[in-house]
Amino acid sequence: MAKFCPDCNSFLTKITQSKDLLFQCTRCTKTVPSNAEDTLMDAGSNLTSDKKMMYKTLIETSSLLLSRRLVSHVCNKCNFPYSSQFLVGGSSVLTCDNCHIQQ
User: Fold this and answer.
1) Per-position DSSP letters for 59-76, written without gaps between them
2) Model's pTM, two decimal places?
3) What is the C-alpha separation between 101 and 29, in angstroms, rounded?
4) 13-17, 47-51, 55-59: lowest mean pLDDT where?
C-alpha cells in the first residue's frame, strides 16, 4: 500500500537504515514514522522475497541435492538427456542437470 506525505501529498519511500521502519517524502524530505500495520506489511513482503530466493537457489543447485531423483528427460533448451526431479511443497519439479532451468 502506497503512503503519501501529510504535508505535500508526495510519495513516501521506506527508510530501513535503523531498526525502525520510517518513511521519507520524495519532495519535502519530511520523515514520517510507521504504524503497526506498515511493519506487518513490510515483514510479509520480505517473507515473499525470501521464499522466491530460496526456490531460485533450490532450482539452481538441484543437481547437488541428495534427495533428488535422476530421470531420463530431454531438456527443452540444451537437449541434455537427464534431469533432476525433487519435491517442493508437495509438487514435483524437474530441472535440467546441465543448464539448471526448470522444465
Assistant:
1) HHTGGG-TT-EEEE---T
2) 0.46
3) 44
4) 47-51
Is the Cα dihedral 55, 59, 61, 62 positive or negative? Answer: positive
Handedness of CA 73, 77, 78, 79 (dihedral sign): positive
Q: Is the pLDDT of residue 66 over 50?
A: yes
**8 A C-beta contact, residue 53 and residue 45:** no
CB 20 within 8 A of CB 33: yes
Partners of residue 14 on adjacent β-strands? 23
Nearest to 96 by CA among 66, 61, 67: 61
Long-range contacts of the stretch 84-91 (C-beta < 8 A, 24+): 86/58, 86/62, 88/55, 88/58
- Is it the case that residue 6 has pLDDT exceeding 80? yes
